[in-house]
Amino acid sequence: MKKIFLVRSNSLDPYFNITLDDKMLFLEGKGAIYGTPKFYKNSDSIILGRFQQKEFKVDENYCVEMV
């Protein structure tokens, strides 16, 4: 029987959280773990997936105003 793990990160560091997500995905791909929901909250950041384009996902004017 496969077990489902829940991972919750208390870190607000987007670099840490994305690395954690990447490592968990790697382990799932190797069959070492199965069905792992991950919960994390980042500080202000923009994170785009491999197939996302910033022109369609990011309001650059808003980002400039927030800096």
Sequence-ordered SSE layout with sheet pairings:
Blueprint: E1 7-8, H1 14-29, E2 38-39, H2 54-57, H3 60-66
Parallel strand pairs: 1-2
Overview of the structural elements:
With 67 residues, the protein is mainly alpha-helical. It has one domain (7-66). It is 40% helix and 6% strand. It has three helices and two strands; from the N terminus they run E-H-E-H-H. Strands 1-2 form a two-stranded parallel sheet. Strand 1 (7-8), helix 1 (14-29) and strand 2 (38-39) form a beta-alpha-beta unit. The longest helix is centred in the N-terminal third of the chain and has 16 residues, at 14-29. It is elongated. It starts with 6 loop residues before the first strand and ends with a helix. The mean pLDDT is 85.
Describe the structure concisely for a colleague.
With about 70 residues, the chain is mainly alpha-helical. It is about 40% helix and about 5% strand.
